[in-house]
Design a protein that fits this description.
heterodimer, A: about 350 residues, alpha/beta, eight-stranded mixed β-sheet, four-stranded antiparallel β-sheet, about 30% helix, about 20% strand, B: about 325 residues, Rossmann fold, 12 strands
Chain lengths: ~350, ~325
C-alpha cells in the first residue's frame, strides 16, 4: 500500500466498484453439429456504491438483476469485468482471503422460509457467518447473537427457538440479523420484502432504514417493486436484458425518466386510489437474451423505436446531473408529461 | 335459463368454513355474504390467512373433506353447499372456473398445453378429440399465445411465466364459464406482464358477460380492476362497498392501515412507513370480538366483547367496526393531495 492510498480518506473512494461486468451462461446443446448457444445474463454493467448510500436495482425477470447480486457477492466467477470492494477485486482474491473478506459483505434472500435451515436453532443460524470466519468461544458468540437479535427487534429468548416458530416477517428479521452479525459494510438484499404481507413489509423496510441510519450500512437492493426501491435507495439502476438502461436518483427517475422502459415500468404500476380507470397497454413481447441482434435491445417493445435504434445500440450517456440513460430518444422521453405519482 | 337479468348469478349468504388445522379447529371464514350479477366484478383484498383463498375454494367446492361449510352458495338459484362430488365436477371448469396464482404448479408438466386446454372441453361438452384440439388452438390464439397452432403440442416448461398464465386462462375459459375466480393471477408475474394479463381477463369479462371474483393482496390491482371490493381480515369481511367509495372514504382501521403501510412511488424522502403493529393472527386462535382488536390503534373494551356488526357508512358501503365515527374522521384515502 502506498502512502497516497493511506492518506486519501475512505469516504472519497467508492465502497463498491463494479466495472464492465459481464456474465455469459452456456445453454444446453440443441444440435450435435452446432455450437451451444449462450445467454448474456449480464452485458457490461458498471456501477458504484459509496459508503452509507444505497443502490436499487429494478427490472423484470430475466433482466440480470439476480446475476448481478450473485456476482457482487462473489458467488460465481464473471465472464469478464471486475467487482472491487474497498479497492480489492473480489474475483481475483485467493479463496482464503475472500473468505475473510466476506465479513464485509453479506446477503439477505427473498424467501424467509427457504433461506433458514429448519433444523438449526436461531442462535446457530445467526452465528454461522461468524463461526465460518474462525473459532469463537460459545459465551461471546451467544452474546453477539443476542446483540444483533435485539437490533432487529427480536428478543434474546428467541435464540433457542427454531425457524418454524416465527412468522414470515420475523424470519426475515432473523435473516437480517444473520447478515448483520459480522458488522458488514454492504448488504445485498435480493427481493427482501416481496414474500411478506403488506403490513409486515412496512415493518421490515423501516428496520432496514433504521439499521442504515444507525450503522452507516450500504445496501444493494434488488426488487421488482419500484416503490420499495424508491423508499430505500439513493440511486436506482433500471436493468433490461443484462444492461443498465437508466441510472439516477429516485427523484430524477420517477419525475422525469429518460428511458421508455423506465416509463413503461412506472406506468404499469397499478395505482391504489378511487377512480382508477384501467389504462390499456399495448401488447409487448419480451426479446430474447440469446439473440446477438444489433441495435437497442428494447427496440422491439419501444413505441419510439426507429431505424437508427434498430441499427445502433445506444450507449449509456448523461442526460442530467448524475442521471444517465441508454436511449437515442432520451430527450423526447423526458419531455413527455410526468407519470402520475401514487396517491 | 329463464332467470331475469336482475337476479344475481351467484349469491353467497353467511358463508362459514371450519377447517381442521395442525393447530386445532379454526374458523377460517365467518359471515361472508355477497351477490354478483352477470358482468359484475368483485375484488377480495387481504393478507395471508385472512380467508380470501378459502372463500374461493369453498365456491369451487375444493375444500378438504374435513372442512365444514355453513351458510349458502347459490348459482342461479341452485344450492351448491352440500352438492355431491359428482355434481360439482359437472360445474367446475364448466360454469365456475378458477385461475390460480402459480402458473407453474397449476399446469401439469407431463402433458402438452393443448391437451390441458382441451381437457375441460372433452369433459363437459360432446366434442371429439379433433374438435377439442381445434378449439384449444383457437383459445390459445385468443389469449395471445404467439404461434398457437405450432406450440399447442409444447410442454409447460417451454413457456415463460406470463405465457403459462395465458395457458391457464385459456383452460379456465374453455367452456365459457359464468363465474370466473382469479386467485392472485398476477402475483408471480412482472409488473408489465401483470397489466397485459389483467387486460386480457377484463376483455373476457366484458365479451362474455362473466362475473369475476378477483383475489389480490395488492390494493392497486383491486382499485383498477373491479367494481366492488371486500376487505378481509381474520376470516371476516371488515369492509365492503363500491371500489371508488372504499378508496374515497376508508372506514375500517385495518383498510386504512393497509393503505398507509404501502411504500408509494414519489413519496417524500425520509418519511417512515406507517406500520400496523403486531402480526396477522392465527386462524386457530382468533381474538374474541373484533378480529383486528389486538392490532387496532383505537380499540376499546367493547370491541373485544363480540364481533361487530357491519354498519353502513354510505350507499352499499359497510364497515365492520364500532368506532367508525373516530376512524373516518381522519379521512384516509381521500382523493387529491
Amino acid at each position: 500500500m502506498t502512502m497516497l492510498d493511506q492518506a486519501s480518506p475512505s469516504a472519497e473512494l467508492p465502497l463498491l466498484e463494479v466495472k464492465d461486468l459481464a456474465q455469459r451462461y452456456t445453454l444446453p446443446r440443441e444440435s450435435m453439429f452446432k455450437p451451444a448457444g449462450q445467454v448474456h445474463a449480464l452485458n457490461g454493467v458498471t456501477a458504484q456504491v459509496m459508503a452509507g448510500r444505497s443502490l436499487g436495482v429494478v427490472g423484470e425477470s430475466g433482466s440480470g438483476k439476480s446475476t448481478f447480486a450473485r456476482l457482487v457477492m462473489a458467488l460465481e466467477q464473471p465472464s469478464s469485468g471486475s467487482v472491487s470492494l474497498m479497492g480489492r477485486d473480489l474475483h481475483r482474491m485467493p479463496a482464503d482471503e475472500l473468505r475473510r473478506a466476506r465479513r464485509d459483505f453479506q446477503m439477505v434472500f427473498q424467501d424467509p422460509y427457504g433461506s433458514l435451515d429448519p433444523r438449526q436453532t436461531v442462535a446457530r443460524i445467526v452465528a454461522e457467518p461468524l463461526t465460518a470466519l474462525g473459532r469463537m468461544d460459545r459465551a461471546s458468540l451467544r452474546q453477539r447473537v443476542a446483540g444483533v437479535l435485539r437490533q432487529v427487534g427480536l428478543r434474546d429468548a428467541d435464540m433457542d427457538k427454531f425457524p418454524h416458530e416465527f412468522s414470515g416477517g420475523q424470519r426475515q428479521r432473523i435473516a437480517i440479523a444473520r447478515a448483520l452479525i459480522t458488522q458488514p459494510k454492504l448488504i445485498v438484499a435480493d427481493e427482501p420484502v416481496s414474500a411478506l404481507d403488506v403490513s409486515v413489509q412496512a415493518q421490515v423496510l423501516n428496520l432496514l432504514q433504521d439499521l442504515q441510519d444507525q450503522f452507516g450500512l450500504s445496501y444493494i437492493l434488488i426488487s421488482h417493486d419500484l416503490a420499495v426501491v424508491d423508499y430505500l435507495c439513493d440511486e436506482i439502476a433500471v436493468m433490461y436484458l443484462g444492461r443498465i438502461v437508466e441510472q439516477g436518483s429516485p427523484e430524477d427517475l420517477f419525475a422525469h425518466c429518460a428511458h421508455p422502459y423506465t416509463r413503461a415500468l412506472l406506468e404499469a404500476v397499478p395505482r391504489a386510489r378511487a377512480g382508477g380507470v384501467r389504462r390499456r397497454r399495448g401488447a409487448q413481447s419480451i426479446a430474447s437474451q440469446s439473440t446477438g441482434a444489433t441495435g437497442c435491445a428494447y427496440a422491439s417493445r419501444c413505441p419510439l423505436a426507429d431505424q437508427h435504434c434498430r441499427d445502433t445500440a445506444p450507449a449509456l450517456r448523461s442526460v442530467g446531473p448524475a442521471h444517465r440513460a441508454a436511449c437515442h430518444h432520451a430527450e423526447a422521453v423526458m419531455a413527455l408529461p410526468q407519470v402520475a405519482a401514487e396517491g | 335459463m329463464s332467470v331475469s337479468a336482475n337476479a344475481p348469478l351467484i349469491e353467497v349468504r353467511d358463508l362459514g368454513v371450519h377447517l381442521n388445522t395442525s393447530r386445532g379447529p379454526a374458523l377460517a371464514v365467518r359471515g361472508v355474504s355477497f351477490a354478483l350479477k352477470r358482468g359484475e366484478t368483485l375484488g377480495l383484498v387481504g393478507e395471508s390467512g385472512c380467508g380470501k383463498s378459502v372463500t374461493a375454494l369453498a365456491l369451487m367446492g375444493l375444500l378438504p373433506d374435513s372442512a365444514v361449510i355453513s351458510g349458502s352458495i347459490r348459482l342461479e338459484g341452485s344450492e351448491l353447499v352440500g352438492l355431491s362430488d359428482a355434481n360439482y365436477c359437472k360445474l367446475r371448469g364448466n360454469r365456475i372456473s378458477m385461475i390460480f396464482q402459480e402458473p407453474m404448479t397449476a399446469l401439469n408438466p407431463m402433458h402438452t398445453i393443448g391437451r390441458q386446454v382441451a381437457e375441460p372441453l372433452r369433459r363437459h361438452t360432446n366434442c371429439s378429440a379433433g374438435e377439442a384440439r381445434k378449439e384449444a388452438i383457437a383459445l390459445l390464439d385468443r389469449v395471445g399465445l404467439p404461434d398457437a397452432a405450432k406450440r399447442v403440442d409444447a410442454y409447460p416448461h417451454q413457456f415463460s411465466g406470463g405465457q403459462r398464465q395465458r395457458v391457464t386462462i385459456a383452460m379456465a375459459l374453455a367452456c365459457q364459464p359464468d363465474v370466473l375466480i382469479a386467485d392472485e393471477p398476477t402475483t408471480a408475474l412482472d409488473v408489465t406482464i401483470q397489466g397485459q394479463i389483467l387486460d386480457l381477463i377484463a376483455d373476457f369479462v366484458a365479451e362474455r358477460g362473466m362475473s369475476m371474483i378477483l383475489i389480490s393482496h395488492d390494493l392497486g390491482v383491486i382499485a383498477e380492476n373491479v367494481q366492488r371490493m371486500m376487505v378481509m381480515y381474520g376470516g371476516t369481511v371488515v369492509e365492503n362497498g363500491a371500489t371508488d367509495a372504499v378508496f374515497t372514504r376508508m372506514g375500517h382501521p385495518y383498510t386504512q392501515g393497509l393503505f398507509r403501510a404501502r411504500p408509494r412511488l414519489g413519496a417524500r424522502k425520509g418519511t417512515r412507513l406507517k406500520t400496523i403493529a403486531g402480526t396477522v393472527p392465527e386462524l386457530a386462535d382468533l381474538p374474541s370480538g373484533c378480529t383486528f382488536a389486538d392490532r387496532c390503534a383505537i380499540v376499546e373494551d367493547r370491541c373485544r366483547v363480540a364481533l361487530p356488526i357491519p354498519v353502513d357508512v354510505g350507499a352499499g358501503h359497510g364497515v365492520r367496526c364500532l368506532r367508525t365515527d373516530v376512524s373516518m374522521a381522519e379521512a384516509v384515502g381521500v382523493l387529491g393531495a
